[in-house]
Amino acid sequence: MAKIPRTKSNDHSAQMSQTRRDFIEAQTGVALTHTGHYSVPEETLEGNIENFTGVAQIPVGFAGPMNINGEHANGEFYVPMATTEGTLVASYSRGMRLTREAGGVTTTVIDDAMQRAPMFAFKDAREALAFGSWVKQHFSSIKAACNATTSVGRLRDIEQHAVSKLRWLRFNFTCGDAAGQNMVSKATKAGCEWIMANYPAPIDHFVLAANLDTDKKHSHLNSLHTRGKRVVAEVTLPRQLVTDIMHCTPEALYKQRQYSNMGAMMAGSVSNGAHFANGITALFIACGQDVANVAESSAGFTFAEITPQGDYYFSVTIPSLIVATYGGGTGLATQNECLNVLGCSGKGSVNKFAEIVAATVLCGDLSLGSAVVSDEWVSSHERLGRNR
Amino acid sequence: MAKIPRTKSNDHSAQMSQTRRDFIEAQTGVALTHTGHYSVPEETLEGNIENFTGVAQIPVGFAGPMNINGEHANGEFYVPMATTEGTLVASYSRGMRLTREAGGVTTTVIDDAMQRAPMFAFKDAREALAFGSWVKQHFSSIKAACNATTSVGRLRDIEQHAVSKLRWLRFNFTCGDAAGQNMVSKATKAGCEWIMANYPAPIDHFVLAANLDTDKKHSHLNSLHTRGKRVVAEVTLPRQLVTDIMHCTPEALYKQRQYSNMGAMMAGSVSNGAHFANGITALFIACGQDVANVAESSAGFTFAEITPQGDYYFSVTIPSLIVATYGGGTGLATQNECLNVLGCSGKGSVNKFAEIVAATVLCGDLSLGSAVVSDEWVSSHERLGRNR
Amino acid sequence: MAKIPRTKSNDHSAQMSQTRRDFIEAQTGVALTHTGHYSVPEETLEGNIENFTGVAQIPVGFAGPMNINGEHANGEFYVPMATTEGTLVASYSRGMRLTREAGGVTTTVIDDAMQRAPMFAFKDAREALAFGSWVKQHFSSIKAACNATTSVGRLRDIEQHAVSKLRWLRFNFTCGDAAGQNMVSKATKAGCEWIMANYPAPIDHFVLAANLDTDKKHSHLNSLHTRGKRVVAEVTLPRQLVTDIMHCTPEALYKQRQYSNMGAMMAGSVSNGAHFANGITALFIACGQDVANVAESSAGFTFAEITPQGDYYFSVTIPSLIVATYGGGTGLATQNECLNVLGCSGKGSVNKFAEIVAATVLCGDLSLGSAVVSDEWVSSHERLGRNR
Amino acid sequence: MAKIPRTKSNDHSAQMSQTRRDFIEAQTGVALTHTGHYSVPEETLEGNIENFTGVAQIPVGFAGPMNINGEHANGEFYVPMATTEGTLVASYSRGMRLTREAGGVTTTVIDDAMQRAPMFAFKDAREALAFGSWVKQHFSSIKAACNATTSVGRLRDIEQHAVSKLRWLRFNFTCGDAAGQNMVSKATKAGCEWIMANYPAPIDHFVLAANLDTDKKHSHLNSLHTRGKRVVAEVTLPRQLVTDIMHCTPEALYKQRQYSNMGAMMAGSVSNGAHFANGITALFIACGQDVANVAESSAGFTFAEITPQGDYYFSVTIPSLIVATYGGGTGLATQNECLNVLGCSGKGSVNKFAEIVAATVLCGDLSLGSAVVSDEWVSSHERLGRNR
User: Fold this and answer.
1) Where are the domains of chain C?
2) Is C76 a catalytic site residue?
3) Is there a contact between A109 and A351 (Cβ–Cβ < 8 Å)?
């Protein structure tokens, strides 16, 4: 089969986009009419995609308003959600109404770190151990080497993980408003080059990554130690609200929580929550995030209590929420509009966005959780239906 | 803040879409110009989204051609990938070139099951055990009750998982070309209603789901027992090809595999692969899949060997690949075009699509893996860059 | 250094035992006076140990009486516990008093399987899949080959687990009163030899075990699917008893349970219980079990509820309790006495013993759990102390 | 049923031991003749057991000599193993012979920490976060409060783990030659009392432990961050030795390692090794360790390589090896003799003992691993047999 047409110069152009659509049609007989219908300027896509040929049109609906009492996000927000799954926007909206009437969702970013974890191999474990000590002693030099590669990223600390004669260094960075995966790769590489140049004893093998980061896949390590932002969203629902809006009781929700905890433990699940991934994915697509990070961001913890007053305290913790308001797809046409609707464009807005995502997740888990309990779950899917 | 405008009738219309864009602009000062630029007919979105307001334009690039020797997918394919992450399409294309020159990727769907796992609680463990036996004895009646709700879904078997006085029944269905989550919820509900009506002893509590499924989150249970399709993609790369195209050797790749296995085990990762999520997400967005299922689909296993001839056998196994070629977003404007490019529209094409996804994942893991080994990884990101 | 003395004939004798003690003293200057003080007849140890040189004297204390309402264990039991950890026997006794006054512990063996999981490798995943189907079709022949090697073990079913071109067959057996690890190894080997002799297509590689069993180490697979006995112990504690004996309330215990569940999930623990391992180990040492199986048997689940009456329902589930009342160390001098005290010697007593172990674990978790809650934990260790 | 006889004073005496044996016989009809045969002085058992009634006689065999090149253990050792599992001592001895002829096992203790993890609950996540910062600022005061309770234990650092409005502080101590669980409980309690007395803002709830430690059960957290000693044992086996003694090749062992890694990952096992638990348990029983810690100590990692020379590098890493040469059962009659044989009695010997355990584990995994590969495994069990 023929190669996909490309040009070295000016590949992100209307012409090349059309050329490739024509090529695909010629090769497969399928016209990319809708895919070719877009308004994003092609030249803005350099750095975001190769072989640009058109766009996927993902429907966006707004949920809300959602009321947040965050450290960074404060007030009411209309939340853009890009999805093709019927019921989703309606269900999140229902949760947002519930929390709004309860006075809003409290959100807190409690940790922040993006990482790259190079691995060093030695003759034996004793040499690996000595290397570990040396790295600790030379942290400030390594940090200087890392930080010199970026005006934004800052090395926070280096965790060490050891097995056999191998030692992984998990470089933790803060990355400003960027998600930072590439930033920290480059910075870590520079740090490792400094190490390789200065370590006075032999190193058998070095590689910039060997699955301890862990990037684009969930790991328990990340849930323990954070990848991206660690965010908590909390709400206390007055008993009456639960009854009126969710058609169940705090006791029924709490009972279900016990079963769900046990089910998650038995299944070996990365989350004891309901469906963090749904809200996260819809926000990620709408807002120009790296959607593949749903793999990591969808893990998390739910914790609930019945208060002495009989109200329902409910919280979600997302330990590896990887978000950006700068770089990646955040500056693109529709994505930037959606970020702007949330007031999350420009310097210093990433924690605000993280709080909005966490609050959204909380609302969605409350809504689905109570639908399951009150047996409205299957029927609402029947009503709002999926396209068949 | 004001409520988002809705109408009971005709809510999926150009007018209501415009009304909501105007509303958002009035409320937030942000014009949704690009978001309002789309060609998907609004009325086709009923059942896919509520409060439809416009679209996210996600850039689509084609990778390939990719050569597959599957049971369902055969020949060469241009693979549509929707992403905003620079390098991604180029990297997957590089892997596709490699495997194409090696004679193509062999793919096999080795298992197929979508599930819902209701939970039943009893007075004590002994009554739960008796219930379990009764369910086994009455499987055919339960199956009939389930299957009566759907012309496509077929109950395959019911796994039982027990703890304390609780018993989860994990209903496994095949679902034709649909992903089937809603189909199996409805069918399982019917099965449970039959159980509740016919079980001759007391049941303390029943709920249709309690986190053992597990839906929209990874679980070890799903990796063991499949959710969606379990697909394997394999290739044997002649040594010369590895050297020529990937600029490294089978031995170097294999050594890195050992480190990556160890890193994944230490991290407690859900995958010992490199970045399954990237390819899956890009295909899911382009092809109208439920992108939130990246949470489950991104987990998996990589297995490699050096053959006696010195070539490199490499495989990926995706145990919970949730895909559809019917229902959900598969029929929408751009999504359907992309599925059609792959020849994956219409009856009986879901396994073909599953094989294409798995082959794509394999190509991407080969490309990133060898870039890490040959130290071309950071530099290629620098060159193709991200948008900043 | 010199070789340890052995004789081909009569190595399990008082003389050889003495010879080896003399040898150790000569080599190291340490007299094995106490180690040489024992009453177990040396000749009974053939098949239990090589190079027999003496015994470890592990102190045995009795806890109880413990009241059980089991299917196999009924009535009151004095429980022999071999330990060197102060407080342990007292703490378990306290829990036994509590449950005795609550009317006893209800126990149920809800599953039973011992396994060996051979692995078969093929040219590719498609051939591995075909093999899997063939194995299902020939189950009865494979079963016959397995069962022919043992008068006790019975093949129950064969689970299949697949990745890449590899396929593990997890042979599940029932083993009468034996733990059965060796029995199932031998039987599975025979089954595999039948397969190798009869499978009509090529098999690239076969090995009797490759870590999927999993033997002598915990795995999530075993927690899901049982290794040995899956046993549940349950009790409902009247509120007054909790206050009187445990000096706390059901609400306080339940609150702590929530924290403990969350802690276990965050830690990635194999158990959300308190210290199953303590009681299991003490019983295993006293009663001639394979103590290394603490690795598997110590995992488990705790589930609790406050009843509508305000009482405290509490349960433990041990999914991989590996026990025997026949074979291994069960027939040895002190071990057999302790089994006899429990009425667990002779045919058909293994489930009785399993229930006693589970009930003991429940009593210990109640005791420690309430000590933590009522802040009596550190102080009781101070009082009953450890040897320093 | 009657209460077990006890006296407030002098309960650890020959008389009370006899009284209880008589009581058990009267109640159950079973004479504890062998159990009553012991030489350990009763009065030495105060602090080790309550209701002392006799001893379990666990057969001890010596394996070895084993050659170690450790930082703390150097030279050849006869290793005492207490077990009732036939083949075990012989198999470990075989592995010791192999490594001895290869020049010995290299061992390194690479980390050391014993912990208690109290939990603090707050009004919300923001207050929990503020608390975390305060704890960091007041570390030296907390440390002083902890260390004042013990002359041996030293607080090393406090890890923080946060979810919802909860915060766990994981206090890491070094504990000299003791295992230290009780030492750190007492010290952590003192540290927490200092916190409670000095923290200027409200704390909703405090508890000394809530399953994050994790004690007497494996957790991924412990594998990542060490509980007890983190020890590595390594050896490089000349190819000829593998062939001569193990009847297989480095390539065959390495191939099996690949399958075993994959099996362990699929099973969700806490170890990719073969049977760490066997050697650890036998040494723990013989040497007065807290045998219940097999639950934690049996987890670990195996890493292997074929060297450029074609030899076989093999290593085991035990991340949570909980050992003591002081306190607990280490001073008892037979236990102390066995520790003395290893030269592990008295001050500063705990790392030596840790290295011996790790080297033993390595020898056992080599022996079983090669038996599986060379298909001698089932047959050796048949020959040396288990008692039936």
Assistant:
1) 14-45, 60-111+222-384, 118-207
2) no
3) yes
Type of residue found at B233 = A
What are the residues of chain B with a beta carbon less than 8 Å away from any beta carbon of chain D? 220, 223-224, 258, 261-262, 264-266, 268, 272, 301, 303, 305
Active site residue C85: yes
- Supply the mean pLDDT for chain B: 96
ipTM above 0.90, yes or no: yes
Note whether C268 contacts A303, CB cutoff 8 Å. Answer: no
Cα C36 to Cα D40: distance, rounded to the nearest angstrom: 12
Q: Which residues contact B137 (CB under 8 A, 6 or more apart)?
A: none
- The reply to whether omega before D65 is within 30° of 0 (cis) is yes
What CA–CA distances, in Å, run from B47 to A386, B53, B216? 4, 15, 20
Give the type of residue at B44: T
Q: Which helix (H) or strand (E) holds A302?
A: strand A301-306
CA distance C279 to chain D (A): 8
Of B10, D110, D4, B176, the residue nearest C90 (C-alpha): D4
Q: Rounded distance, CA A25 to CA A4, Å?
A: 12
Residue A380's pLDDT is what?
65
Residues in Cβ contact with C300 at an 8 Å cutoff, skipping those fewer than 6 apart: C223, C270, C271, C273, C276, C316, C317, C318, C319, C361
**Alpha carbon distances (Å) from D74 to C294, D107, D355:** 30, 9, 9
- How do the pLDDT tens digits run along chain B, 388 residues long? 799 999 998 999 999 999 999 999 999 999 999 999 999 999 999 999 999 999 999 999 999 999 999 999 999 999 999 999 999 999 999 999 999 999 999 999 999 999 999 999 999 999 999 999 999 999 999 999 999 999 999 999 999 999 999 999 999 999 999 999 999 999 999 999 999 999 999 999 999 999 999 999 999 999 999 999 999 999 999 999 999 998 999 999 999 999 999 999 999 999 999 999 999 999 999 999 999 999 999 999 999 999 999 999 999 999 999 999 999 999 999 999 999 999 998 789 999 999 999 999 999 999 999 999 987 766 666 666 544 4
Would the CB atoms of C303 and A224 count as touching at under 8 Å?
Answer: no
Question: Which pLDDT tens digit goes with each residue over D125-138?
Answer: 999 999 999 999 99
State how far the Cα of C261 lies from the Cα of B39, in Å rounded to an integer.
50
CA distances from D56 to B351, C48, C374 (A): 60, 15, 34
Q: Which of B164, B235, B257, B320 to mutate to test the interface with C (most CBs of C within 10 A)?
A: B164
What is the rounded distance in angstroms from the CA atom of residue A142 to the CA atom of residue A133?
A: 13
Burial class (CB in 10 A: 0-12, 13-18, 19+), D202: exposed
Q: Under 8 Å CB-to-CB from B304, ≥6 apart: which residues?
A: B253, B254, B257, B312, B313, B314, B315
Show which residues of A are catalytic.
85, 290, 381
Query: Which one is the CATH code of D60-111+222-384: 3.30.465.10, 3.30.70.120, 3.40.309.10, 3.90.770.10?
Result: 3.90.770.10
How far apart, in Å, are the Cα atoms of D301 and each of B49, D284, D316?
48, 20, 6
Which amino acid is residue A226, in one-letter code? T
**Pairwise CB contact (< 8 Å): A124 & D108:** yes
Closest by Cα among A83, A80, A93 to A386: A83
Is the sign of the CA dihedral C259, C265, C271, C275 positive or negative? negative
Read off the pLDDT of residues B120-163 as tens digits, 9 standing for 90 and up.
999 999 999 999 999 999 999 999 999 999 999 999 999 999 99
Helices C250-267 and A250-267 cross at an angle (nearest 10°) of 40
The phi and psi torsions of C34 (rounded to 5 degrees) equal -70, -40
Kindly report the nearest CA distance between residue C9 and chain D, in angstroms: 13
B118-207: CATH number? 3.30.70.420
Residues B224 and B347: beta-carbon distance below 8 Å: no
